[in-house]
Write a structure and sequence with these properties.
about 170 residues; 5-stranded parallel sheet; binds adenosine-5'-diphosphate; alpha/beta; about 15% strand; 5 strands
């Protein structure tokens, strides 16, 4: 069978259960999956790229064909360096579609040998985003089921808010 290496690029600020759902699905489909944390947005991010990569490594420890890296610059250049043939992206609702399509077209323009593959998460993660998690977290809301426990702990620590149980 053909060996297919995929990269799954994103900000992951922070990683959510939606990202992990997609990583698990991707790990079943591809020979190797490289989760690629984007460094470009580092200045405005809540967590540094190293912290985001560390959280992803903790959460994907049980998946032997998944590796976590960080990168800056053009995604297609990083993909080439990984010898990846596929870019994995998630689509939740129709609202993701326009932006994702634009990115996929542009990436094809930059490197026509790279295929973008879209996958859907489980329905319960269809409205879950890192932005929403940061907002709920900063207001002290419950995040169980939305992010892994270690991510929730780091988030509360970073935001300086008590866990709902402490209130
Ligand atoms: P970006 O800043 O590139 O949008 P994200 O870290 O937010 O990065 O997301 C990376 C990828 O994961 C994107 O393709 C995004 O659509 C997808 N994604 C984000 N949240 C979810 C989710 N809940 N379910 C499925 N895919 C998701």
């Amino acid at each position: 069978m053909k060996q297919v290496v995929a990269i799954y690029p994103g900000s992951f600020d922070p990683p959510t259960n939606g990202h992990l759902d997609l990583i698990e699905r991707g790990a079943k489909l591809f020979t190797e999956l490289v989760v690629a944390v984007l460094r470009n947005s580092e200045k405005t991010a809540l967590f540094t790229a190293d912290e985001r990569a560390e959280m992803l490594r903790e959460c994907t420890r049980g998946l032997p064909n998944v590796r976590v890296e960080s990168f800056e610059g053009l995604m297609v250049d990083f993909a080439r360096g990984c010898k990846a043939q596929v870019v994995l992206r998630g689509v939740r609702a129709v609202s993701d579609y326009e932006y994702e399509l634009q990115m996929a077209w542009m990436n094809r323009q930059l490197d026509s040998s790279l295929e973008t593959v879209f996958m859907m998460p489980a329905g319960r993660y269809a409205y879950l985003s890192s932005k929403l998690v940061r907002e709920i977290g900063s207001l002290g809301g419950k995040l169980d089921g939305l992010v892994p426990a270690q991510v929730e702990e780091r988030l509360r620590h970073r935001l300086g808010v008590a866990t709902p149980a402490d209130k």
